[in-house]
Design goal:
The chain has 290 residues and is of the alpha+beta class. The protein is built from 7 helices and 15 strands.
Length: 290
């Protein structure tokens, strides 16, 4: 009997050792151009798109161009591991995925501007960088894993919440809090924005496309924003954050993709609390034909 118990303990130990080895990597690097020396700082870029005469589509095109040119902070380029587990059909599964340390930002390490985007533009950037947006379950897990958990700082709702000046106001509030808690750039940060997420609610009951938001967790781990698809597809406001996650993930140490996991009838529970995600991305336009 003692020999059998020792054998079981050895099997468990070997499982966790093999898992530890498989998941020994601590970071992955974003495939993006180096930041040009003449790039705008975050505050300078924000000033360049502040004019109220600039349309949302033109504003977002400027954001897309800055990101494509590599004008993101150096600390943003190292993605950090998040691990989750689940028992599926009596077997233990461990998934590891790599997430951006913070929400998408434009500028330098010392001067960066968070970039709220419409769902379509967020998906364009994710596609360019071989990334995905999170699900609600992933948003929760990222918050739980964050080293620095910020306290949400809402700004009273108004029509101005969709404008760059309010983006800048909230940017300042977040940076002030990051300074107060002495957050180290490149550490996993959460609680400063709502997540634009992928969800089965992207297509509403009436067949129209919607942006789906969730999160803005408080220190008690509860999210201010429940899963919500009440806004139109082109809605964006200061509270929206774009969290990028590498498409490549590791399931029990083996490479696979977020899409494959989310479309699996059995494995989806590792990344989704909505079941199979039928369309795990946003269309680039108002058409649902992908």
């Amino acid at each position: 009997m003692k020999a059998i118990i020792m054998m079981k303990q050895l099997v468990i130990l070997l499982f966790f050792l093999s898992t530890l080895i498989a998941f020994s990597g601590n970071a992955q690097h974003l495939s993006i151009a180096q930041r040009p020396e003449n790039s705008l700082t975050g505050s300078a870029f924000a000033a360049s798109i502040r004019d109220s005469q600039i349309s949302v589509s033109a504003r977002e095109q400027h954001m897309l161009e800055e990101v494509e040119q590599g004008n993101v902070p150096d600390f943003y380029r190292s993605f950090l591991p998040v691990i989750d587990t689940a028992m599926i059909e009596g077997k233990q599964f461990v998934i590891k995925y790599f997430v951006a340390p913070d929400y998408l930002a434009i500028g330098s390490d010392k001067d960066y501007f968070y970039a709220p985007l419409t769902a379509a533009s967020a998906q364009k950037i994710a596609d360019k960088l071989n990334c995905s947006l999170p699900t609600r379950k992933m948003s929760n897990r990222i918050y739980q894993s964050a080293i620095f958990k910020l306290t949400p700082e809402p700004i009273p709702p108004s029509i101005r919440m969709m404008t760059v000046p309010v983006f800048e106001d909230h940017n300042k509030l977040v940076h002030q809090q990051l300074d107060r808690i002495d957050a180290k750039p490149g550490s996993l940060v959460a609680g400063n924005k709502k997540d634009v997420i992928i969800s089965n609610k992207i297509i509403a009951a009436d067949g129209t496309l919607r942006v789906v938001i969730y999160g803005w967790h408080k220190p008690d781990n509860k999210a201010i924003q429940p899963l919500y698809n009440g806004h139109k597809y082109d809605w964006v406001d200061y509270s929206h954050g774009i969290r990028l996650i590498q498409n490549r993930v590791y399931l029990n140490g083996r490479k696979t993709t977020i899409k494959k996991i989310l479309k699996s009838k059995t494995l989806n529970v590792l990344l989704s609390d909505e079941g199979v995600i039928r369309m795990p991305r946003y269309p680039h336009t108002n058409s649902i034909k992908l």
